[in-house]
Amino acid sequence: MKTYGFKTFQVNKNERGLLLRGGDFARVLGPGKHRIWALGETLHVQRFGQDAPAFTHPLADYLMAHEPKVLAQHFVRAELGESEVGLRYEDGLLAEVLPPGARRLYWKHLHEVRVEVLPLPADARIAPELAARLQQLAERRGPASLAGGVLLTQVPQFHTGLLWLDGQLQAALAPGVHGFWRFGRSLAVEVVDLRAQTAEVAGQDILTRDKVGLRLNLAAVWRYADVQAAFAQLPKPAEHVYRELQFALRAAVGQRTLDALLDDKAAIDSAVLQAVRAKLAGCGIALESVGVKDIILPGEMRSILAQVVEAEKAAQANVIRRREETAATRSLLNTAKVMEDNPVALRMKELETLERVAERIDKISVVGGLDQVLNGLVKLR
User: Fold this and answer.
1) Of 130, 165, 192, at which residue does a domain stop?
2) Same structural domain for residues 87 and 147?
């Protein structure tokens, strides 16, 4: 609607106004009442709250190109190149990360706004101090404040981080917090445990050389000797270790008979350890130990072996029984020879026999004296 004469506009203290004459920019209005003369023009004031410092308006590009005085008085200008990143501070605190190529205007009145321009380094690394501030910013204002251009990662103790930049392995990261600029780059950090790890090869059904089916469970302990070399050669080192253990176990069992395996179980451990170490040589992986945990026989074979063991033990028990009987007979013969030539020894044996008999009888009636009892109980020829 066209206006003639003065028109009054009110701009609050925490606001700024954009005066438009006929829809075109005229000037910026500060806080207070403004009486503006209009002569057949449409006057309009757009108000901007200073709690949102960014000036997002279609006139922003025009102001940056043609209104240097307005910019100097009311705005902070941020204009970045393709290889630059910006850090916007409000009242001394980091508030926002600006991506390369950004062109922004910020109101300068309510908050002290400052924009720091940094070149993007070739290795994409962020200084540790700045990485800590960016971490605080993400916690305070959310991940959106990082403009999706910051990768922050923490590497725990006893671990290392593998930095992949544009699909290439760049470096190993020590424990701690690390930050990288990801604008225009493909970045990823893989955290790897450097401590000893266990590989379980369970439930392997394997035929021995004499065609007996066994199920085996094997465990191995391994660690990274050179983590960069391991990941440079192997996409998934842990899976590679598992496969090599599996193949070596099958080869070691398939070359031996069941009796050989049961007689020397440690031979499997030694064969698998040597075979896998040879396969992993130069891969940056150290195999420390290998051990077969279980050898499980099929039900029929367990019954047969149980019968074999039972027969062996029965034969051993029979041999021992015969040996003891022979020894007992020899002892009795020696005792008889001693008593034949020694009446005193014979008398002692008679008394010993009488004592054993008396232990089993509650009451004894003696008729004719003790000699009559001895002569009646024991007769030696």
Assistant:
1) 192
2) no
